[in-house]
């Protein structure tokens, strides 16, 4: 359960950072390729995939606990590990983004 609470906190922080990034005016020199996703879109998609992985793992574990046929313990453990690794990777990305943001904000202008 604490992993779910941690994930929710991470999601709130990431959405806050995304909202801050979207609220700032874009530099004039930045001309993205037509049809290319923005960084905030890519980040949102990555967070969504981590969320989907977490939910799939939880559903599979619940199905196993309820004794549904066709749900194997190895599948549950693999899904759990995938969810854990994806969450840890997202946390590391968040930490790097926060550190980069703090470094940029501390630069003299």
Write the topology of this structure.
Layout: H1 2-23, H2 39-65, H3 73-105
Helix pairs in contact: 1-2, 2-3
List keywords for this structure.
about 110 residues, elongated
Structure, described:
The protein is elongated, with a radius of gyration of 18 Å. The chain contains 3 helices and no strands. It has helices spanning 2-23, 39-65, 73-105. The longest helix is centred in the last third of the chain and has 33 residues, at 73-105. It has a domain at 74-108. The protein has 109 residues and is mostly helical.
- The number of distinct helices, counting runs of at least 4 residues, comes to 3
Helix content: over 70%
Major sheet, described briefly?
none
Instruction: Give a count of the beta strands, DSSP E runs of length 2 or more.
Output: 0
Oligomer: single chain
The topology string of helices and strands comes to HHH
The termini sit apart by 44 Å
Q: From the alpha-carbon coordinates, what is the Rg to the nearest angstrom?
A: 18 Å
Uncertain ranges: none
* Bulk shape: elongated
Mean pLDDT reading: 83
Task: Provide the structure class.
Answer: mainly alpha
Strand content: under 5%
Describe what is shown at a glance:
The protein is mainly α. The chain has three helices and no strands. It has a domain at 74-108.
């Amino acid at each position: 359960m604490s992993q779910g609470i941690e994930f929710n906190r991470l999601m709130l922080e990431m959405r806050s950072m995304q909202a801050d990034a979207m609220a700032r005016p874009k530099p004039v020199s930045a001309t993205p390729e037509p049809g290319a996703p923005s960084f905030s879109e890519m980040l949102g998609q990555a967070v969504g995939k981590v969320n989907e992985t977490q939910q799939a793992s939880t559903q599979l574990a619940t199905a196993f606990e309820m004794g549904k046929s066709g749900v194997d313990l190895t599948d549950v453990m693999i899904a759990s590990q995938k969810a854990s690794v994806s969450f840890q990777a997202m946390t590391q990305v968040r930490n790097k983004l926060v550190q980069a943001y703090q470094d940029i904000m501390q630069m003299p202008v």
